[in-house]
What does this fold into?
Amino acid sequence: MTKRSNRQFATGEYYHVYNRGVDKRNIFLDKGDFERFLKSAILFNTLEPLGSLYEHEFNLRFGRRTSKTTKLPLIDIVSYALNPNHIHMVLCQMIEGGVSEFIKRVSGGYAKYFNHKYKRSGALFQGKFKSVHVSSNEYLLHVGTYVNLNDKVHRLPRHASKTSWEEYVLPQCARPLCNTSAVLDQFRSKEEYKTFAQESLRDMFERKERMRELQALLLE
It folds into this structure.
């Protein structure tokens, strides 16, 4: 895997970005941790730096004006999955350097929050984030579904993860984070997408089972 500093992310292209906790440790321990990460993903996604999330909330609480930030987004979030010990995101880069800058801000800010809250120090994530170029529309549909249903893929209890699934299937979402149009515009309705996604999930499980059977045969 190419080091992050040497990666070239193309504007207008989609990428599957993922990382996990150092030593496979859990990085989300309660509902507040999920909320903090997602709030950071919204507020830090601007061309001009925001500063710290704490500073932003302090200014809002006491009615202090902050300098105007350029509202141009660094990236579009297509889908996300926050699991106990790892994250997945499908991102579209909107400006040059957007993917790297977004991940640096969000993961760095979250690590500081997590270390302060749980009284720890050191790295929270396992090295540089990993990324795969989403090179076709078919790949976009399937990787987006994989991320939306990642809690089901790993058979996690509902409270143990947070994904963008509801943004894709509910009539309305209280606080939408994703730009779902790249995927949903290809279906006649959210219900049709839901059917497609559930069929894709069944295919994932069937492939996993076939792989387990093959590995068992090879070990005989």
User: Anything to note?
Assistant: The helical segments are 31-43, 53-61, 98-117, 137-148, 150-153, 165-169, 181-184, 190-219. The chain has one domain: 9-219. The chain is about 45% helix and 15% strand.
